[in-house]
Design goal:
Number of strands: 4
Number of helices: 2
Helix content: 55-70%
Shape: elongated
Largest sheet: 2 strands, antiparallel
Number of domains: 2
Strand content: 5-15%
Distance between the termini: 94 Å
Radius of gyration: 26 Å
Order of helices and strands: HEEEEH
Length: 107
C-alpha cells in the first residue's frame, strides 16, 4: 500500500509539472517547426532550382480571370460578390479597377 501511495504521489507531481510546462512545450515546438520548414524549403529549392509549394494530390485548379494563370483552388483569391478566381492581389486590384471604369453612372 505504501508503494502505491508513493507512485500515485509521483504520478500526480509529474502530471502537475507537465500541465504547467505545456504552454512552453507548445511554444518550443512551434519555434522548432519554423526551422524544420525552412530546412525543408531550402532543400526543395536546392533540388529543383526553384521554390516549390506543397499541393494536395487531386486538388482542383482555378484559372485567374485576369492573366489566365492556373493555380490550386485553395490559393485562389476571390471577391465576395464575384465567383471569378484571381492569382494575386495585383490581378485582383486590376479586376476591381476595370470594373470601376466599366460602371456607368445614372444619367
Amino acid at each position: 500500500m505504501k508503494y502505491f501511495f508513493v507512485l500515485s504521489l509521483f504520478a500526480l507531481l509529474l502530471a502537475l509539472a507537465y500541465w504547467r510546462a505545456r504552454p512552453y512545450i507548445a511554444a518550443a515546438r512551434r519555434f522548432l517547426g519554423v526551422f524544420r520548414d525552412a530546412q525543408r524549403l531550402s532543400s526543395d529549392y536546392q533540388a529543383t532550382g526553384a521554390p516549390r509549394r506543397p499541393s494536395r494530390a487531386g486538388e482542383k485548379l482555378a484559372r485567374c480571370a485576369v492573366c489566365g494563370t492556373w493555380l490550386p483552388a485553395s490559393r485562389a483569391l476571390a471577391l465576395r460578390n464575384s465567383p471569378d478566381p484571381y492569382c494575386s492581389t495585383v490581378c485582383l486590384t486590376a479586376a476591381t479597377d476595370a470594373r470601376a471604369t466599366r460602371r456607368k453612372s445614372a444619367p
